[in-house]
Specification:
The structure is a homodimer.
Chain A lengths: L7 E3 L5 E9 L14 E2 L10 H19 L10 E5 L5 H10 L3 E3 L6 H14 L5 E8 L1 H8 L15 E2 L2 E8 L5 E9 L13 H20 L8 E4 L3 H15 L8 E3 H5 L10 E2 L1 H18 L4 E9 L3 H5 L6 E11 L1
Parallel strand pairs in A: 2-3, 4-5, 4-6, 7-12, 10-11, 10-13
Antiparallel strand pairs in A: 1-9, 2-8, 6-8, 9-14, 13-14
Helix pairs in contact in A: 1-2, 5-6
């Protein structure tokens, strides 16, 4: 990324995805991706006293599962990069406390998992880390009461609202010459704001940022959408995915609909009343670590572009009549045979 | 940082601090460092309708001043790394929106500025960025009502409480062979929790994390405290600084008191009723960019170790009876003649 104007890191020594793990909540466990997750929670409290403590425990378990998968102890982990939607990212930092791993706290709202992959891969490829635990989580119950209303109120959700996934994903990146899944490029997005003021309409707020980041990625790398077997957005949902296709079409960017899936739109059946689809940091994290990376490993896909998106607002900014700015990060994950 | 167990990045191509800027609020402008800040605010609302909007505007101005100092436009800035204490880091992300710069949102509580230096320097030294805007801010009025009580209540502050600085600092790092201030090493801390449950006693919560990070830095680099002209902690305050000296003494780590200053303890006169000292992301950021880097440039100091510390709690975690975990990051800044 030394070229002026480029937003994309091309990794000289692409790190290996040495292991990955995913945990999904009870509702997510009844969706179409159920069989792909590594752990399904029977109960969204995980035996804890509060949903926030439950989310911390979910992150801790998911990171531990990824470390186990790579046959590593927490002492061998050089850094944990991650975040979540809780104020002051307490789910990730309290999980890092119990793991004792050097911690790099990130906040990119629902794009945090892909942000962690992009930064973690750069630190490994640059020779600064031997390995990095990249993770992000969300929990429906912690997010609703923090961003919107206490669940106890039973507030009706508008049809454009998405459903914050109770889920966590973790990918363990490692400097390694071994063949396997490699993170080959990462793009850092800009904050884009087309003046959406409906804090329930995440798809509309984030689609322009995804379009901007995707365009930058393709232009920086000289690639076309067709060079990827699949482009997976994080959590635009059904409506946001359509808006992205519309933006691409208006700008003359070739984006074949059959190449484009959305993790949020894949997480739930429409009958599950998740409205516009799944969302939250844990959505793209768990779907990437639980489903997409397994499809890459199985040979079903070879080149994946994962584009995480986030809405960088807070209840305070909305109460102060600010619009909802979006951001996106993109990571190319490719199978090296 | 490829050595197992090491938490320190040794930059092969140490980036240059091409420019730095600081903005401080009215109370900070009456403190001992008043003459050093680049802009003093006459009014903590900056002509905005709310304190949050004022903080966004303060960040935007500070970043713009650093870009101007390096004679760069925002289009030439490759990335902005930063964060703040507001929920969902809205001050930094809304400032990044108005600047149009690719954005890497970080959260390390009051350590965020040093975290940005550590990550930004690694991305530049690793060849992934040509330059990076590293910034962090805090605002007394946004932080108090979010973390503690609405100011209008006039709640009495306990003597161990610190005063969140209304301030912002920004350092523009650049890949450059030119002589000047260089970021030569960075250490990523672990989350350390000695079970402090008083969310007003930040010094006590963060001192153990600073001790852990400082010990790791010295051990990883094979340096002694004496190899630095000055070790500046972020915002331990008067009490936290004493606790750090006590921890060092108990562990047999040589830490001469005359080498150790604290940015928070330097920001206010004791008569200003800031109690334990200044704190907040903007404290270490503005003191480093306003005072310490100028002392390095003036030849008064040659080797500085800046250790930012943060308390990774939220009001929710405190209400749920969780203790206050701390984190710290260290960055070595040296003048190359």
């Amino acid at each position: 990324m030394s070229r002026a104007g480029s937003q994309t890191f091309l990794y000289d020594r692409p790190p290996l995805v040495a292991a990955h793990a995913s945990v999904a909540g009870p509702k997510e466990g009844k969706g179409p991706l159920s069989a792909w997750f590594d752990e399904l929670l029977a109960d969204d409290l995980l035996g804890q006293k509060s949903w926030e403590l439950a989310e911390m425990e979910m992150v801790r378990r998911c990171v531990q599962a990824a470390l186990n998968g790579a046959r590593m102890t927490d002492e061998e982990a050089q850094a944990m990069l991650g975040g979540d939607l809780n104020n002051q990212i307490i789910a990730s930092s309290f999980a890092a406390r119990s793991l004792g791993v050097p911690f790099i706290g990130l906040y990119g709202a629902c794009s945090t998992f892909v942000q962690a992959l992009v930064i973690g891969a750069a630190l490994i490829s640059g020779g600064y880390l031997e390995n990095a635990v990249c993770t992000a989580s969300s929990h429906y119950c912690t997010a609703e009461r923090q961003f919107r209303f206490p669940l106890e109120l039973g507030t009706q959700r508008p049809p454009q609202a998405s459903w914050t996934a109770t889920a966590c994903g973790c990918a363990l990146l490692k400097a390694s010459p071994e063949r396997g899944l490699k993170v080959t490029a990462g793009t850092v997005g800009r904050i884009i704001d087309l003046n959406i003021s409906d804090a329930n309409h995440m798809g509309a707020a984030m689609a322009p940022a995804v379009f901007d980041c995707l365009s930058a990625h393709l232009s920086d790398t000289g690639r076309k959408a067709d060079d990827y077997d699949l482009i997976a957005t994080g959590d635009l949902g059904w409506i946001g995915r359509d808006l992205l296709l519309e933006l691409a079409s208006a700008a003359g960017l070739e984006l074949p609909p059959e190449k484009l899936i959305d993790c949020g739109a894949s997480l739930f059946y429409q009958e599950q009343d998740a409205h516009a689809g799944g969302s939250g940091c844990g959505c793209v994290a768990s779907v990437a670590c639980g489903w997409l990376m397994k499809r890459l490993e199985a040979g079903d896909l070879k080149r994946l572009l994962l584009v995480g998106s986030g809405a960088m607002f807070s209840p305070t900014s909305s109460q102060q009549a600010q619009s909802v700015p979006g951001i996106a990060y993109a990571a190319a994950i490719e199978r090296e045979d």
